[in-house]
Amino acid sequence: MPKVRVGVLGATGIVGQRFVSLLVDHPWFELEALTASPRSAGKPYAEASKWYLSEPLPEDVAELTVLETDPREVEREADVDLVFSALPSDVAREVEPKFAEAGFAVASNASAYRMEEDVPLVIPEVNPDHLGLIDVQRDERGWDGFIVTNPNCSTIQMVLTLKPLMDEFGVEEVIVSTMQAVSGAGYAGVPSMAILDNIIPYIEGEEEKMETETLKILGELDGDRIEPADLTVSASCHRVPVLDGHTEAIFVSTTEEADPEEAAEVLAGFRGIPQERGLPTAPERPVIVREEEDRPQPRFDREAGDGMSVVVGRIRRDPVLDGLKYVCVGHNAVRGAAGASVLNAELLVSEGYL
Ligand SMILES: NC(=O)c1ccc[n+]([C@@H]2O[C@H](COP(=O)([O-])OP(=O)(O)OC[C@H]3O[C@@H](n4cnc5c(N)ncnc54)[C@H](OP(=O)(O)O)[C@@H]3O)[C@@H](O)[C@H]2O)c1
To answer: Which of 8, 139, 271, 310 is the least buried, fewest Cβ under 10 Å from its Cβ?
Structure first.
């Protein structure tokens, strides 16, 4: 199979760098174009990005000239069918439709279009059938290309644990309290003077995203629309001085009585289409269950499954919600961002959309 040629929009940021790292040796994708803001355009990538990953920046990527984030420029300078978007949401809102209109497939990590009715919001293990909205989107908007989105970082890891519990026991109410890493706010996101020796109990828009995106992802595709899932989510989101890896304390009420040991088996046994088809970025186990009383922890568990697995522990009965409570850790920039978009793109290839 010839490789699909791809580009990254917003390639110099935290998520953009993760995209580069996941795409350099990808078996299905060839990285051909990198874009960023006018501040970076025209510079070699090594100069424009403050490379923060521990692995070295590959030389051929370091030398690539950063392009303007404009479909005409990308068409002129590179031959690309798919672009991954790691743009700030306000920029994505303006730019992503221009790429879709110009015929590019856009796999977006930004929030701008996630909740639009005709835009799929996909976690490949959870709701791969929602890609069916692509045809609706193309019909309604008259685009040759399309936009597919992945959820917000904290939502992805929570929903990966809710889906198997929902299928087995039914889930009616969810309360979640997050402890989110600083990398989730982007490279210049949180000043060190604000976060060191501190916790910030507010992340703009995050609670609303967890409360609404969850219902769309767990909803049913009904013809040309999604019927949201019938459950309530209450989220409280907090920034903590951890570099990478979000931790979440999750409390769920279940329809059927759920025994913690049985829940552990259900979570550990969860598999989806990415595992069945062996998609290149799919982890062997989407949810890993740890038995130790003091796990999961971000420092030890965020790299599980190369950052694509979510790690769950401390599964107990919840006496207030008459259900379960547990702790979950996921890598916000890999499974929660770039890895999520790359897995979506692999699903698009395997479903014949690319
Ligand atoms: N960080 C995470 O863990 C995470 C998780 C899930 C979702 N997200 C979402 O992913 C997106 C990127 O987040 P990030 O953390 O990578 O942010 P970031 O580190 O601030 O990077 C932003 C990127 O966008 C580019 N950019 C900024 N303004 C632009 C403009 N006017 N035109 C074109 N490009 C522009 C920047 O280029 P310059 O370097 O030239 O400024 C940079 O490449 C956001 O929508 C965010 O909400 C992030």
So the answer is: 139
Q: What is the mean pLDDT of each run of 10 residues along the chain (354 residues)?
A: 95 96 97 98 96 92 97 96 98 98 98 98 98 97 97 98 98 98 93 97 98 98 96 98 98 97 98 98 98 98 98 98 98 98 98 95
pLDDT score recorded for residue 187: 87
Which phi and psi (to 5°) does residue 212 adopt? -100, -40
Q: How far apart are CA 250 and CA 254, in angstroms?
A: 13
What topology is assigned to 4-152+338-350 in CATH?
Rossmann fold (3.40.50)
- Residue in 87, 210, 239, 331 to alter for ligand 1 test, most ligand atoms within 8 A of Cβ: 87
Where do you find CATH 3.40.50.720 in the chain? 4-152+338-350
Q: Which of 37, 52, 90, 93 to mutate to test the pocket of ligand 1 (most atoms within 8 A of CB)?
A: 37
∠ at Cα 170 (153, 291), nearest 5°? 65
| Residue 1 pLDDT | 82
CATH 3.30.360.10 range(s) for the chain read 153-331
The pLDDT, as a whole number, for residue 188 is 87
Architecture (CATH level 2) of domain 153-331 = 2-Layer Sandwich (3.30)
Task: Quote the CA–CA distance of 246 and 237 in Å, as a whole number.
Answer: 10
Beta-strand relationship, 67-68 and 29-36: parallel
